[in-house]
């Protein structure tokens, strides 16, 4: 008992250290991208807090799996201290942890982030007072609060279980719904709301993460263009534009006014010349900076990292394809959310995670790496694509130049993607997420030559969907993910879309040439001419 308690304490201590690491990561990440000229304390704190809460919620997944696995021995029997009361207490602790974190996520998504966003949108008007900003932000935020309330109500009263008596009255049916709500302690309402956000996160993952998984490694492998060569080309363009401007102005030397067409062309050439001179200053700064020389020395290491990331991406894609193919061939169908009874087609990650779980905390480390990998690839996708509303580009994400509103959008997207990461890990390793490394005992008939008869022997077997409920404990994460079958069905089809977008992104990334060393400078109309160039923005 003492040894078991000590190991649990060590596990929670590691989880505490992970929380500190998450907070440090979020602070560095947000500070790295926020604009130095337009940084705001409230938007910065909101972005750091919301992203940290999402990462902490995802960090509960390996804790949940570890606890349900730790209650049983490898031979399929429960440990001495893991009686019914202790098991329920552990399960409730994890469940209340999810309640708390998911409630905070709902608060951030449907109230605090929209409020801060609309507050800074109103702040752009110089004549607007603080009181008017708060009132306008609250007015727009009410719509998000109404949506959240509707999701909670739908989730609370959607009839997952029908009354056994088909001849029951309408009042009895309503009473049954309220009894179901009370018995689930609000699990269905919260699960429906979080699953709705996870569905949006799936769309964001399909858009950004799938493309980023191919764009990030290939950009590392290909690298950027040479700054000196780019500056030489830019100088030639400057000379060409200056000659064109002189040719147009020479038409009005005798005092005659320029035609309207020449005036428009002259204005366009002057704007082009300002952009080229701004590029020249950036290129000159980057060409002579020590950071460029340092990155040049690290070029072989970047190529190695790029090869490693593309191999990891292929590992994920192969595992996801095999898992989805297994569901397509052997699942119970769309009405069950494509649930699998056992594993028929094994994939690499589904085999690796249970093996790593035997040496704590190797599986914890691997899941953390997977989540961080999804974040970095999502960020690469967002930087390459930008934030769009259908065909309208809303914001661009750049290091040190991201506006407060764009920063809130960025963290909102990452928050939703991190929520979807839990289901992605389930898709990659369904048995591991459901039961961890739990085994249960089954009776097997064995023929013995010594006793000239049959004998019964209890044999341990890996827990799966066919296992008895009293022998295998399902993780709380799985209950949240699969409370509603139609969300599981949507995630299944979303995985196929994810694979398709990855292949398209891989082809596009292979066909694209090297990026400019100052890519985005010529498009940044909001950067003034006196802005100081930065080598870190590349």
From TrEMBL:
Coiled coil: none annotated. It comes from the Eukaryota. It is a multi-pass membrane protein. The chain crosses the membrane at residues 6-29, 41-61, 96-120, 140-160, 187-211, 303-322, 364-394, 406-426, 484-508. It is found in: Lysosome membrane. InterPro entries: LMBD1_LysCbl_Transport (IPR050854), LMBR1-like_membr_prot (IPR006876). Keywords: Cobalamin, Cobalt, Developmental protein, Gastrulation, Lysosome, Membrane, Transmembrane, Transmembrane helix, Transport. Pfam families: LMBR1. One of its GO terms (molecular function) is insulin receptor binding. The keyword Kinase does not apply. GO terms for cellular component: clathrin-coated endocytic vesicle; endoplasmic reticulum membrane; lysosomal membrane; plasma membrane. GO terms for biological process: clathrin-dependent endocytosis; gastrulation; insulin receptor internalization; protein localization to lysosome. Belongs to the LIMR family. LMBRD1 subfamily. Interacts with ABCD4; this interaction induces the translocation of ABCD4 from the endoplasmic reticulum to the lysosome. Interacts with ABCD4 and MMACHC; this interaction ensures the transport of cobalamin from the lysosome to the cytoplasm. Interacts with INSR, adapter protein complex 2 and clathrin heavy chain. This is Lysosomal cobalamin transport escort protein LMBD1. It comes from Mesocricetus auratus.
